[in-house]
Amino acid sequence: MKWINEPVANTGYCEAMFALSENEIRILRPTFERSLMYYRKKYEQFEDIRQSGEATEHQLNKWTMYSEIVGKLECLIKMI
């Protein structure tokens, strides 16, 4: 792991990022996949409640939150 400076297009500035090596990513991939399974299960639980039409506002907020987490984890795993 190390800090890198990535140029931002058309600005002349650089953005500092924390980078992982390919080996470190391969080590972390199973952790991301387990997290995805956990959050997908939570998402599906709230999706069932939402589809039944009995979801409260709190449950809809949770459904939205889990939906975003699942989407981001799926995108991250595809990039790996």
Binned strand content: 15-25%
Main beta-sheet strand count, sense and barrel state: 2 strands, antiparallel
Mean pLDDT score = 92
Question: Topology as H/E string?
Answer: EEHH
The number of helical runs is 2
- Overall 3D shape: elongated
| Helix content class | 55-70%
Q: Tell how many strands the DSSP assignment holds.
A: 2
Query: What is the strand arrangement across the widest sheet?
Result: 1-2
Which class do the helix and strand fractions yield?
alpha+beta
How far apart are the termini? 16 Å
Low-confidence stretches: none
* Alpha carbon gyration radius: 18 Å
Task: Give the key terms.
80 residues, alpha+beta, two-stranded antiparallel sheet, 2 strands, elongated
Give an account of the 3D structure:
The chain is α+β, with helices and mostly antiparallel strands and about 80 residues long. Helices cover about 70% and strands about 15% of the residues. It has two helices and two strands, in the order ββαα. The chain has helices spanning about 20-50, 55-80, and strands spanning about 1-5, 15-20. Strands 1-2 form a two-stranded antiparallel sheet. A hairpin with a 6-residue loop joins strand 1 and strand 2 (about 15-20). Helix 1 (about 20-50) runs antiparallel to helix 2 (about 55-80). The longest helix has about 30 residues, at about 20-50. It is elongated and about 50 Å long. The model has no long low-confidence stretch (mean pLDDT about 90).
